[in-house]
Automatic annotation (TrEMBL):
Protein name: PH domain-containing protein
Domain of life: Bacteria
Residues that span the membrane, as ranges: 21-43, 55-77
Record-annotated YdbS-like PH domain positions: 76-152
Organism: Aeromicrobium senzhongii
Taxonomic classification: Bacteria, Bacillati, Actinomycetota, Actinomycetes, Propionibacteriales
Any Pfam family hit: bPH_2
This protein's UniProt keywords: Membrane, Transmembrane, Transmembrane helix
Amino acid sequence: MLSEKLLLDDEAIEVQTRTHVKVLIVPFLVGLAIMLIGGYFAGAVGDSGGGTPRLLGLVVLAVLFLWGTLLPFLRWLTWTYTLTNRRLIEQKGIVTRSGRIIPLARINDVAYEKGVIDRVLRCGTLIIHDASHQSGMHLRDIPRIEEFHRTITRLVLETHAPEARRDEQA
């Protein structure tokens, strides 16, 4: 999650989240299948050839396990979304970290989308458009999407409220 040292003065964290755990279902099933195949393979090959074929097969399966299960888990673990009272921050990356920061004052549209499965799991995609030349930011598989949408909308409106009052006075 976001380190406190990255916060600006008078900035407070409102919501911190990562994508919904549903993204880990396929890697879990891949890991389970690899373990079942590994067990069958080790038993079927046995000690033939001095154990070298079994060792070589298990090494290949271990690499596949790391690539198909551990890597997606680490990606999920290190990909976070933080909403503060001043910014929306996306951070991702296992070894090399990258991210995108959108000040709430630049956000001009907040929308969300939910499919059938998303409705059951109470997650969805949040779409943020800001006053920049970059395409909108799509935050996929956000848990409790309605709550996150309400919070960011409230904060954006609060951020834009001083500008609205200045426009009314002019």
